Amino acid sequence: MSKQGKLYVVATPIGNLEDITLRAIRILAEVDLIAAEDTRRTKILLDRYGITTAATSLYDHNEAGKTPRIIERLTEGAAVAYVSDAGTPGISDPGYLLITESIAREIPVIPIPGPSAVVTALCVSGLPMDRFAFYGFIPPRRGRRRTFLACLSKERKSMVFYESPRRLNETLQDMEDILGDRKIVLARELTKIHEEMLRGRLSEIRGALGEKTLKGEICLILAGAGEDPPPQSDEIIDNLIGRLAADENLSTKDIVERIASESNIPKKKLYERALNVRRKPSK
How far is CA 141 from CA 58, 133, 167, 244, in A? Predict the structure, then answer.
């Protein structure tokens, strides 16, 4: 009887190399192959713990081509560990395709839990943790970002996002414009030498940052809406429609489809508002 392969999904430190479990160290040393998002970064971790297992790259741009080869190794009986750059694989990182393909072929997929920037930031945020929503990276383009944020206006749970330092100031301004001056926590370089936590309202954090650009990886935890959030006003919807029409030059149909796909606003209402906006003479 042939040996059955196994895929281990291994969480690795998000900064401090001591934040790795004993089980993760053992698995990484025992498997036949490590598939890594960045073999150079993974080598630093492996060298720290004297692990000599062979590693191969598996990242966004080669995941589609590389996954079948790794699946072949698994079906032949190999034990493979997948690690991302840092944290838990698949959480705004590659790995989804390899995991789903393994499941489809009934290859055992075994989680090796450990660090995650989402939970690390949330647990010290001071914002409600009983329920939360993770939205990954915020859309980079301003029009799409503001549409995305407007669709979260009624979300009552604490919201967790990743953001680039380059777009941070613009994103905080858009959050305040669209969602109001809510409480927010900015977590930067978690578990690293320059770890920083900024807590306050959006206006306070923007004021503290000024025009300076931060460095490093940033996680944002934003307070949810109140217990009785106000309904989304026609004015907010009209402003959103106007921005999409101006910034991205979309047709009325495309605007309605875009907003409807990212919110619970009825298409009929959106279409009526869009027609009203387009009838208004430009200033």
Answer: 27, 22, 10, 11
d(CA 5, CA 96): 18
The domain segmentation of the chain, as residue ranges, is: 6-115, 118-222, 234-279
Say how far apart CA 17 and CA 123 lie, in whole Å: 20
- Correct CATH for 6-115 of 3.40.1010.10, 3.40.30.10, 3.40.50.720, 3.90.226.10: 3.40.1010.10
Of residues 261 and 76, the one with the higher pLDDT is: 76
Q: At which residue do the structure tokens 């387009």 appear?
A: 278
CB under 8 Å to 88, separation ≥6 — which residues? Answer: 9, 11, 113, 114, 115, 116
- 16: tokens are 């401090």
CA distance between the termini of the chain: 77
pTM: 0.76
Query: CB pairs under 8 A, 24+ apart, for 200-209?
Result: 202/172, 202/175, 202/176, 203/176, 205/172, 206/169, 206/172, 206/173, 206/176, 209/168, 209/169, 209/172
What would the pLDDT profile of 169-183 be if each residue is shown by its tens digit?
999 999 999 999 999
Read off the pLDDT of residues 189-244 as tens digits, 9 standing for 90 and up: 999 999 999 999 999 999 999 877 888 889 999 999 974 444 566 777 888 888 78
- How many degrees, rounded to 5, is the angle at CA 232 between CA 226 and CA 233? 125
Tell the CATH topology of 118-222: 3.30.950
Mean pLDDT, residues 97-114 = 96
Q: Which stretch of DSSP H or E encloses residue 10?
A: strand 6-10
Does the pLDDT of residue 79 top 60, yes or no?
yes
* Amino acid residing at 110: I
Tokens of 110: 């075994």
